[in-house]
Amino acid sequence: MAGVRGVSRTACGLSLSQISRPAYPTCTRRGASSAAAAPSPALADLESDSTLGTPELSPEEKLAFRPWKRAADRRLPLPGSRYKYHPPKYARGPLHPIQSPATSDPIARDFVPGPFNLPRLRQTWQSTVSSDLMTLAYLHTPPGTEKHERADRLRTWDDSSPYHKNRPKRGPRGAPVLPLIERDITFRNIPELKEISIACYVPRATKDPDQLVVARSAIMAITGALPDITKTNKSVVQWDIVKGKKAGVKVTIYGNEAYDFLDRCIHLVFPRIKDWQGIAATTGDGSGNLSFGFTPDSVALFPEIEVNYDMYPPKMIPGCRVFVKTTATSDRQARLLLQAMGVPFFGKIRD
To answer: Are 209 and 164 in contact (CB under 8 A)?
Structure first.
């Protein structure tokens, strides 16, 4: 300790790297000199030879080097687990030593390339609509407010039988399917577009198969996906409908394709429909899914149909029904989402 105290204040103010740094003679100009050309003692352990100076193989050595021949002569294949990596099929928990790679990794089993474009409507949702929805749906709850618990909508068993034990609850009478419970919009569950399904019913296709070909071509043009052919479920004698006959097409689009389709509907098709008030505000299934329809004249307004209008017979262009599925938990939140994107609604709103 006495030796440390004896160090001057100037030396104490220096860092360890400054103290251990070797002293070099200061000079105002450094040039090519014998001192600069001399090898540094710190680089003495490095090899002076370089792989760039390796002599080229002779023709005899090139002919002798045949890896394909060595692989063909091998009687047993190399173990795949040692030279190839196969991601696990199942996720066995976060503590398992073997973990599945990220979805963005090309070797992952669920890897999907893309996205290759960013739709304008989706970019608007990310930058503007999402924050506006949180502001519009914000409900201030003062601290200390009592929370009212919701009544249980499911029926419990009366335990009159030993088979009732540990049995899940039943739904209410007369309501086999319960709608979702509306949850407050937070930064964790902002409603967004999930998928769009387009269905087209062509009953005349049972007698004229060309009707089905035109309908499938039109739906494929406006969605960019190959539709599936649907068949009738029941027979109706009055309408000459036979069960099992091909009488329609349907297709479901997801992600950016769904945003592109809705963008074309809002900015290119809806403004050109004559005497159109908007989508009925009573639409919805109670769980955040809305629907609307297009007449044959409205389908012809899509740019994909309009640019090749002569390719489709005018009287054979079908109408279609559009089902918009969102991540909202109520029809009110789904209407807020579509209204923010530019979809008009009319009529009495049903909550």
So the answer is: no
Torsion of CA 224, 291, 262, 334, to 10 degrees: -140
Residue 218: what pLDDT? 94
d(CA 10, CA 13): 5
Residues 187, 324: Cα–Cα separation, whole Å: 22
What 3-state class would DSSP assign to 113? coil
Residues 6 or more apart whose Cβ sits within 8 Å of residue 195: 252, 253, 254, 258, 325
**What distance in Å separates the CA atoms of residue 291 and residue 279, rounded to the nearest whole number?**
8
Measured on CA atoms in the order 255, 288, 291, 340, is the torsion positive or negative?
negative
Asked if residue 303 lies in contact with residue 255, where contact means CB atoms within 8 angstroms, the answer is: no
Cα separation values, 151 from 18, 155, 181, 281, 296, Å: 73, 11, 12, 28, 47
Which residues face 155 on adjacent strands?
A: 170
Name which of 198, 349, 190 is nearest 265 in CA terms: 198
Q: What is the distance of C-alpha 155 from the center of its chain?
A: 37
Please, which residues have CB within 8 angstroms of residue 133's CB and are 6 or more apart in sequence?
185, 190, 191, 333, 336, 337, 340
The radius of gyration of the chain from alpha carbons, rounded to an integer in Å, stands at 36
Backbone angles phi, psi at 243, to 5 degrees: -65, 135
Instruction: Assess contact for 294 and 322: CB atoms under 8 A.
Output: yes
Q: DSSP readout, 296-314?
A: HHHHTTSHHHHTTGGGS-G
For the whole model, what pTM was predicted? 0.67
Residue 43: what pLDDT? 67
Q: Contact at 8 Å (CB) between 321 and 198?
A: yes
Q: CA 223 → CA 98, 194, 299, distances in Å?
A: 41, 15, 12
| Parts of the chain with a pLDDT under 50 | 1-12, 14-32, 83
CA distances from 143 to 140, 146, 147 (A): 9, 9, 11
User: Which domains does the chain carry?
Assistant: 193-346 (3.30.1440.10)
